[in-house]
Amino acid sequence: MSGALEKQEGGDHYKKLKIQPAEYAFHNKLPALEASVVKYVTRHEAKGGAEDLKKAIHCIQLILQLQYEESGEEL
Asked: Please, are residues 21 and 39 in contact by the beta-carbon 8 Å criterion?
């Protein structure tokens, strides 16, 4: 079978996984920020190191601000 999940631009860190972050996010209907958290945490050892973890933290901070500050929930 050939398709987008079998190829990757810029490395092979996702192709080595049993389930790619995009596939997981799609099947679980994750919004963009949550999908990004999964992506960055999954790849940090194979690609971006601490920078990817910082990106994941930033996405989580955005989720907290956008989703929970507006509802008045204490953070």
From this structure: yes
Supply the DSSP symbol for 6.
G
DSSP H stretches of helix in the chain: 21-27, 32-43, 50-63
| Domains of the chain, residue spans | 19-69
For the chain, first and last CA: distance in Å? 46
Stated length of the chain: 75
**Calpha distance 34→63 (Å, rounded):** 8
The pTM score is: 0.81
Contact 57, 64 (CB under 8 A): no
pLDDT of residue 1: 46
Among 10, 35, 7, which residue's Cα sits nearest to residue 21?
A: 35
Specify the amino acid at residue 18. Answer: K
